[in-house]
Amino acid sequence: MDRVRSSGEGFERLVEIVRRLRAPDGCPWDRKQTPLSLKKYLLEEAYEAVEAIDEGDAAHIAEELGDLLFLIIFVAYLYEEKGAFDLRGLLEQTAAKMIRRHPHVFGEKQAQSAEEVINNWQKIKEAEARKTSEPRSSVLGNLPRTLPALQQAYRVGERASRVGFDWSGPKDLWPKVEEELNELKEAIARGEKEATFAELGDLLFTLVNLSRHLGINPEEALRQTIERFIQRFILMERKFEARGRRLREASLAEMDAVWEEIKSEEV
């Protein structure tokens, strides 16, 4: 209980800091901000928090989560200033929603697995939509359009699978991958730009579904590949510099040779 009280006091302190920054004699920059102007910072802070989690440094994670929490409070307070909603109401509404959507914890319903929890969650969301003027919610949910495309594709496939609209496993996906790859090759051969664009998207979407069936998040896999490429590329630059040469002066064959050398040193 003391820890809960301490956390609450810390939250209130952040709210008070935001109020002070937004006061008439507060910070000129903070007083100038709007929810629209802060959108980019919300995304940046969220990505920085994700990066810190990937790095695994607890102190850095705490710092980045703190920055993100402060910004969320800031944006919510801007709406409170306009009378759209207040922080207390926001917190109470969120708490009520979490309790309502976890009847296996706060109620009598039983759930023995994560899959059961997800299915129950979806049913509860559909029931909530029926009680309001909102249209019936799709099993796909309302994924944000700002979500990275790979992650969005992953989540769409994941949600469609909940109603059985899915391949049975990676083995069944290989023919689809080959089919989409062949269609892409044919579109390129015909010189049809729009068809090539569409077929490339189809191939990527199929590969994302393959990664899901392999238990791999494609966003994470691609991010790690990009990071490896960056590190290898920088090391290649340094190796050529050590030989008194600039990378742009080397031939592709020379760069490939050094690249393979770098890869072999990683093993």
Question: In words, what does this structure look like?
Answer:
GO terms for molecular function: ATP diphosphatase activity. Keywords: Hydrolase. Residues 33-106, 170-232 form the NTP pyrophosphohydrolase MazG-like domain. This protein is mainly alpha-helical and 267 residues long. It folds into three domains: 2-100, Helix Hairpins; 166-216; 220-266, no CATH class. Helices cover 76% and strands 0% of the residues. The chain contains twelve helices and no strands. The chain has helices at 2-22, 28-32, 35-55, 58-82, 87-100, 103-106, 114-131, 149-161, 170-190, 193-213, 218-242, 252-266. It is extended. The model has no long low-confidence stretch (mean pLDDT 91).
- Would you identify the CATH architecture of the largest domain? Orthogonal Bundle
Q: Give the structural class.
A: mainly alpha
How confident overall, as mean pLDDT? 91
Number of domains: 3
Q: Please identify which CATH superfamily of the largest domain we are dealing with.
A: MazG-like
Roughly how many Å apart are the termini? 50 Å
Question: What percentage of residues falls in helices of 4 or more residues?
Answer: over 70%
Shape: extended
Largest sheet: none
Kindly state the number of beta strands: 0
CATH top-level class of the largest domain: Mainly Alpha
Estimate the strand proportion: under 5%
* Helical stretch tally: 12
Q: Rg to the nearest angstrom?
A: 25 Å
The sequence of SSEs as H and E is HHHHHHHHHHHH
- Briefly note the CATH topology name of the largest domain: Helix Hairpins
Low-pLDDT residue spans: none
